[in-house]
Amino acid sequence: MNKIHNSCGLCKIDIKNLTVTSGSDTLLDNINLDFHCGQLTALIGKNGAGKTTLIKTILGERNFTGNISYKEHNEKDIKRPIIGYVPQQLSFDKNTPVSVLDFMIATNSNRPVWLFHKKSQREKIKEQLEKLNCSHVIDRKLGDLSGGELQRVLLATALEPMPDFLILDEPVSGVDVNGLDIFYKTVSELRDNYHIAILLVSHDLSLIKKYADKVVLLDKTVIESGDVDTVFKTDAFKKTFGFMDLEV
Could you say which of 38, 59, 94, 204 has the lowest number of CB atoms within 10 Å? Predict the structure, then answer.
């Protein structure tokens, strides 16, 4: 990936007193967090802790009380931040004859992709894929991609246009060990080269220890937050995940 250090307009995302309810159930309770540009924050917790609910809330898919704001370096509000999102998995018929090129063009166009492809469109898609070292899959069918290749295609799609805030919801579920490390290295390069804020939900604690700048332990509210070593040494972390050796 080429070194392109573009400082984004976004400085931080502020979440204050965020609460999400469903009927009489409290799904998230008084969440207070901030995410900064140039920082990879890992969101961890047991199943049912509210990680996906928090992501859906940030994406505008859940009603909430409290406040989510996006700030420039001078504390001025950003009204329409660009948010990129990579889901845990893409549901599609693996027998469909849709190529990577077709898929990526379709995400940015209302025109049926089977009519024709402009040369300029192909070149743009190729450039997007080259950023993630996977331009060789441009003509492959989506159903023929490995798990790691598909996730890099989804990541490339989420980066057009380049977001202020990138959200990755367990993006390497089902990806082999080699694919995991490649994906995390790629995400780290994005953080360093484009100075974007990244929120990653993951169960891969060893890789989080290796790549994350900050960790948030969630259990419907923020239990612990801080640098990786500090959070991993807390009693709350040990209670949630049990004792484990995460030396890397």
Answer: 94
* List of residues 6+ apart from 154 with CB closer than 8 A: 86, 87, 90, 171
Residue 65 burial (C-beta neighbours within 10 Å; 0-12, 13-18, 19+):
exposed
pTM of the model: 0.85
What is the side-by-side strand order in the sheet with 165-169?
A: 83-86, 165-169, 197-201, 40-44, 214-218, 222-226
To 10 degrees, what angle do helices 119-130 and 147-158 make?
110
Q: Report how far Cα 176 is from the mean position of its chain's Cα atoms.
A: 18
User: CA-CA distances (angstroms) from residue 170 to 9, 89, 192, 214?
Assistant: 26, 8, 21, 16
Q: How many CB atoms lie within 10 A of CB 7?
A: 12
Alpha helices in the chain (DSSP H): 51-58, 100-106, 119-130, 147-158, 177-194, 205-211, 228-232, 235-241
- d(CA 230, CA 134) in angstroms, rounded, equals 36
Q: Could you list the mean pLDDT of each consecutive 10-residue stretch along the chain, which spans 248 residues?
A: 51 95 96 95 96 96 97 86 87 83 82 67 92 91 89 90 91 74 85 92 90 96 96 95 62
pLDDT, position 146: 87
Say if CB 142 and CB 94 are below 8 A apart. yes
50: region left, alpha or beta (phi > 0 left; psi from -120 to 50 alpha): left
pLDDT at 248: 40
Q: Which residues of 224-248 are buried (b: 16+ CB within 10 A; e: fewer)?
A: bbeebeebbeeeebeebbeeeeeee
Counting every residue written for the chain, the total comes to 248
